[in-house]
């Protein structure tokens, strides 16, 4: 089971694509119920699942279909409502990052969504991130049997919004980029919040249950060419030609093409799974 935001969904889609080709069409199925999407492989009694929880904890963005909310609010100590859906699987792959990057501070709800609370406090992004991962780590320690379940945490998946970051003054975001950043001697900064990277790396090392921190960040930062760009979906539909002609507005430089970079992430994940087996 993959748990997290649309980048983890991107990786789940990659995993489904990688395994489904060897399964007869009549022996596989895909279903979606609320936050949970399940790809079933009948002959192996196996599923590859994705659970939508962009902040891992409860938030006002937890609706898997209607979550385009600018005023995002989280409950950093509330995880059980989601976590009850993550138990008794063989491999749990978590992530949370991109939804943290809209604002410099995070809104923390005073009280509970269930009780109709609307007031919130604002704290800086790293402090909120650390609180959420502390809640997550406590959930893992309390609920995961390491003899049954292997746990992974994916590091930050970067975005490529500003072409000046790779010294392309004529570029428009990631549009029409056809090769990776090849100048490895150039200081590379595409806007990744490395503070969150450090927090995640440290938290995963401090949990009693073994958690493997899968570092995909640096290799992905070089792949300015690997995004869906204007060949993407917006509000459930492929971009129209006039939208594709306006990459400054419509280019998706967050998500990744398939086949593509998420396949590499899954090769790393698979290598780690079989090496631990």
UniProtKB/TrEMBL annotation:
InterPro entries named in the record: TBL, TBL_C
A single GO molecular function term of this UniProt record: O-acetyltransferase activity
GO CC, alphabetical: Golgi apparatus
Domain of life: Eukaryota
Residue ranges of every copy of the Trichome birefringence-like C-terminal domain listed in the record: 1-271
Family from the record: Belongs to the PC-esterase family. TBL subfamily.
PANTHER family xref list: PROTEIN ESKIMO 1-LIKE (PTHR32285:SF293), PROTEIN TRICHOME BIREFRINGENCE-LIKE 9-RELATED (PTHR32285)
Name by which UniProt lists this protein: Trichome birefringence-like C-terminal domain-containing protein
Organism, as annotated: Solanum tuberosum (Potato)
């Amino acid at each position: 089971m993959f748990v997290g935001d649309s980048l983890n969904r991107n990786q789940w889609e990659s995993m489904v694509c990688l395994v489904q080709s060897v399964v007869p069409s009549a022996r596989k199925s895909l279903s979606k119920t609320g936050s949970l999407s399940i790809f079933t492989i009948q002959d192996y009694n196996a599923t590859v699942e994705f659970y939508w929880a962009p902040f891992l904890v409860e938030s006002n963005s937890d609706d898997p279909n209607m979550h385009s909310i600018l005023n995002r609010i989280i409950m950093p100590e509330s995880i059980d409502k989601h976590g009850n859906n993550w138990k008794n699987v063989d491999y749990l792959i978590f992530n949370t990052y991109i939804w943290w990057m809209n604002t410099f501070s995070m809104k923390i709800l005073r009280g509970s969504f269930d009780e109709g609370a609307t007031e919130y406090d604002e704290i800086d992004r790293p402090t909120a991130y650390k609180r959420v991962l502390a809640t997550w780590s406590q959930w893992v320690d309390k609920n995961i049997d390491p003899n049954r379940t292997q746990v992974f945490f994916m590091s930050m998946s970067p975005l490529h919004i500003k072409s000046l970051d790779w010294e392309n003054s004529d570029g428009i975001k990631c549009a029409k980029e056809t090769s990776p950043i090849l100048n490895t001697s150039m200081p590379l900064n595409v806007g990744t919040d490395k503070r969150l990277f450090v927090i995640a790396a440290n938290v995963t090392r401090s949990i009693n249950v073994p958690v493997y921190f899968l570092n995909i960040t640096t290799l992905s930062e070089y792949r300015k060419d690997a995004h869906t760009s204007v060949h993407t979906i917006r509000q459930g539909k492929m971009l129209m030609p006039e939208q594709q002609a306006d990459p400054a507005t419509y280019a998706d430089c967050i998500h990744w093409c398939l086949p593509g970079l998420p396949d590499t992430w899954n090769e790393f994940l698979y290598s780690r799974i079989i090496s631990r087996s």
